[in-house]
Design brief:
The chain is α/β, with parallel strands linked by helices and about 325 residues long. The protein has helices spanning about 40-50, 70-80, 90-95, 105-115, 130-150, 165-195, 200-210, 215-225, 235-240, 265-285, 285-295, 300-320; strands at about 5-10, 15-25, 30-35, 60-65, 80-85, 245-250, 255-260. Helix 5 (about 130-150) packs across helix 8 (about 215-225).
Amino acid sequence: MKNYCFHIGIDVSKLKLDVNVLNIQTLVSEHFVLKNDVKSIKLFIKTLIKRKIDICDVLFCCENTGIYTNHLITISTDLKLDLWVVPAMEIKRSKGISRGKNDKTDARDISYYSLRNIDKLALYTLAELDILKLKMLYTEREKVLKSLLIMQTSKENIDFVNKEILTQISKINSSLVCAIKKSIKMIECKIKQIIQSNEELQKQDRLIKSVPGIGDQTSLYFIIATKGFTAFPSWRKFACYSGVAPFEYSSGSSIKGRTKVNHLADKKMKSLLQMCAMTSMKYDAQIKEYYYKKKAEGKNSMLILNNIRCKLISRVFAVINRQTPYINTYKFAS
C-alpha cells in the first residue's frame, strides 16, 4: 500500500471548495478556500508544487456530491492525481459523536478520514466517456418521463371542469404531451446511437438482454451503475449496492431479528429488478417453478421475489464474465 506524506480533505459545494492540507509527519493542518472552477483548482495544485510538495505523495479525498465534484475529477484525471471519492454517509458515520458543523471542520474531518481509513482506499477511476453520456441521457429521460406523468394528470379534470375551459386546457396539454413524447424518443434514439457506436457496450447490452426478464431500460441501467462492469468485483457486491442482499440482525441471546435487506441502496436499480423479477416469472419456466415451490414451503412472497432479483443479478454477471449469451439449460433437463 502506498504511503502518502499529505492527506488533503476537500469539502465540495456549488461555489467553493474548502481544502484541508494535513501533513502526516507533523500532523499540522492548513486550511484553504478555493472557487469551484478549473482555474482555481489548477492554481492550488501549482501552489503545492511551489512548496516543493511531490504530488505523487498526496492523497486527495472528497465526498461524493454529484456534479459539483466534476471540476475536481477532471483535474485529477488530467494531472493523474490520486483522488478518493467517498460517500458522504460513510464519512459522517465515521466521525462519531459530533456537535455542530461548518465547511472548515468538514474538510479537516475528510482529511483525517482518509488517513485513518487508508486500508479502504479505492482510487477514483473516470468512467468511459460513452458511459458518462449514457448516464446524463438516462437522467434527462427520467426527468422528462416525470413531466409527462404530471401533464397527463390533467385528464382527471374532464368530469369536473367547464367544457369551454376544458377545451382550451386540453389543446395546450395535448401539444405539450406531444412535445414531451418527441423529446423522449430523441433521447432514446441518442442512447441507442451511443451503444451501437461502442462495440463493447453493444456486446454488453446484448448479453444482458439475453437473460429472460431483462429489457432495454434495465440493461442500460446495469451498464451505467456498474460503469461498464468495472466498478464491482462480483455480483454479490452489486446485490448489496442494489439493496437486495439480505443481512442478519442479531445481538447476543436477546436480540434475534429477522434477516432482511438494508434501506441503503440504489432505489432505481432495486425497482427495475423488481419489475424484471415479475416479468421473469411469466416467461422463465425455471423461475416460475422456483417461485411456486418456495410458496408451497410457506415462504413470504417478497422474500421469494428478492431471491429472484439476486438470481437475475448473478445471471447478468455470469454472462458478462463468460462473454456468452444466457443459455436456458432448464429446457434440456429430462
